[in-house]
Amino acid sequence: MSAQGGTKAIVAALGANLSIAAAKFVAFLFSGSSSMLAEAVHSVADSGNQGLLLLGGKRAQRAATEEHPFGYGRERYIYGFLVSIVLFSVGGMFAVYEGFEKIKDPHPLDDWYWPVGVLVFSVVAEGFSFRTAMKESNATRGSMSWTEFIRRAKAPELPVVLLEDFGALIGLVLALGGVGLALGTHNGVWDGIGTLCIGTLLIVIALVLAVETKSLLLGESAGAEQVAKIREAAVDGDTVTRVIHMRTQHLGPEELLVAAKIAVRHDDTAAEVAAAIDAAEARIREAVPIARAIYLEPDIYSETAATAGDDPAATPGGPGPAPASH
Questions:
Q1: What's the average model confidence in pLDDT over 167-177?
Q2: Domain 4-218 indexed as CATH 1.20.1510.10
Q3: Model's pTM, two decimal places?
């Protein structure tokens, strides 16, 4: 994984969740709280998810092969999508089922100090993990809001850990509320309602993760700032006069494919055009280092053809003049 911060946040979350899961299972055995059982399963699911993210990062580092010439960078997206499935099924659906069962057949909590003590410990541990994830995210988030960061980040690990930790903290508050109301009213139904709320929260987070990682799996373009840098770097004003149209796609979080049609002068020789393409590729890689695969096609730009209408192959949101291909 290129971002050491992403790995650091995952390891911190994994350590926190393993210790929390063990403590929650002990508390459930002593108290019989369904909220504690749901939270324990949630922590186990989160631990498995962090293992998946680490495995995906490791497998994504494999070298390109003939069968996969662009490498395995997208494996990180696949494992990120698997995380959403695990969170939905193992975490969310189990908690919803357990909540309904407790509401149908409520029973008072035994040894209440076990779940309360473990929940307070869990809040501290999850808070440390969440703080680590926020700190590492700030290194790459820049001026983006947290919502924009979750939606636009090309590396799936930090958004996944952020959402998991945020969901875990909210879930712990819900569990504390359910346990507290069950103790205060001597009615175990509240414990079941708390568990049901935890399950609903996990399902919502899982769906958000699924939507975002699905977009990455389909193939997202470079960000607007990177696209602008690539366009500017490609043009030298001498041999390469403009970018006619361009496509970019992430092959992985730190691997970008760039394919563009560039305008060259009509009287340039083949050697001059070849040298101009090599120079443009070098400038693009310097401006955007993650641009690993670059394919530039030279063409002659025609002002007459440009007035005929927008090029249907033009980069979305970019300049739309059409090329005149010869």
A1: 86
A2: yes
A3: 0.72
